[in-house]
Specification:
Strand content: 15-25%
CATH architecture of the largest domain: Sandwich
Number of strands: 8
CATH topology of the largest domain: Jelly Rolls
Radius of gyration: 21 Å
Number of helices: 11
Structural class: alpha+beta
């Protein structure tokens, strides 16, 4: 269970800083809505029906009673603003703007914005945190108006982004396996080890994994590693050998071979194409 809103309050506003390798230790479920603004870092959210990555300048939205975990996707420390609020607190906004728009906001889950809008949104979060920390008996009333403004700015300025929904929800055992892969992709991950984490025999786990995710365990691990290689090629100046050793490949040549078969070009060509 995530940290609840304190008794007697309907909203909390906070700013958090986590180390670059911070990962939620287990699946969590909350009884409130939440809005995250990412100041710094690269994260991946895993839920039974969705998996998506988010980065600096993005906003993620969480609904009550949704199981989720987040994991790190880079070596950049994670910094964010977080607003939590009760369903009752947002009722005036829903009555004014309409339930359809409100539900659409939280069903979409992830939003990108232009650089100009990011500055505006970050300022609203900063002002809300400042107001929250005041010893003002009317601060929740003031914060309610500020939250309404924030949601309106998000709705009016959001850029299109698609978060694909799975055809059927993942079982807890497969969610545990995905979490295990995301946190150990740089190590010697094997089907047997992942099956043990999920408390299944290797053969049963292999079939279950393929049915729910549409790819084999080995292919999924390879895809995760390649995505991390791409991020390091984009975000760092590390050599191919260094990246190989940090993403679970034994050497640079092997990484280059796997990368080209997946992406259609070598890591060096990929990095040059972005520059």
């Amino acid at each position: 269970m995530s940290i609840p809103i304190p008794i007697g309050k309907q909203i909390t506003v906070q700013k958090d800083i986590y180390p670059n390798n911070y990962c939620m230790p287990s699946m969590e479920i909350a009884d409130h809505y939440d809005i995250n603004y990412i100041i710094k870092g690269d994260r991946k959210a895993i839920t039974p029906l969705f998996s998506y990555s988010y980065h600096k300048g993005d906003i993620t939205m969480g609904s009550p009673y949704t199981y989720h975990r987040t994991v790190s996707e880079s070596d950049i420390p994670y910094e964010r603003y977080l607003i939590k609020f009760t369903p009752d607190f947002i009722e005036p906004f829903i009555k004014y703007i309409g339930k359809d728009i409100f539900n659409n906001l939280f069903e979409q889950k992830l939003f990108h914005f232009s650089e100009k809008t990011q500055i505006k949104i970050k300022q609203i979060f900063s002002e809300m945190l400042e107001e929250y920390n005041k010893k003002n008996p009317y601060k929740e009333f003031i914060l309610q108006g500020m939250l309404n403004r924030l949601l309106t700015v998000i709705w009016e300025n959001k850029l299109t982004v698609e978060v694909k929904r799975r055809d059927s929800p993942l079982t807890n055992s497969i969610l545990d396996a995905i979490y295990y892969i995301e946190n150990n992709y740089a190590k010697d991950i094997t089907l047997n080890k992942a099956a043990k984490e999920s408390h299944f025999s290797p053969s049963h786990f292999s079939r279950l994994f393929k049915v729910q995710l549409g790819v084999s365990f080995t292919e999924y691990v390879g895809n995760v590693r390649i995505e991390h290689v791409k991020k390091m090629l984009i975000q760092t100046n590390k050599s191919i050998m260094e990246i190989a050793l940090e993403t679970g490949y034994c050497n640079g040549d092997y990484l280059s071979s796997k990368f080209k078969s997946k992406v259609g070009m070598t890591p060096s060509e990929f990095r040059r194409s972005l520059k």
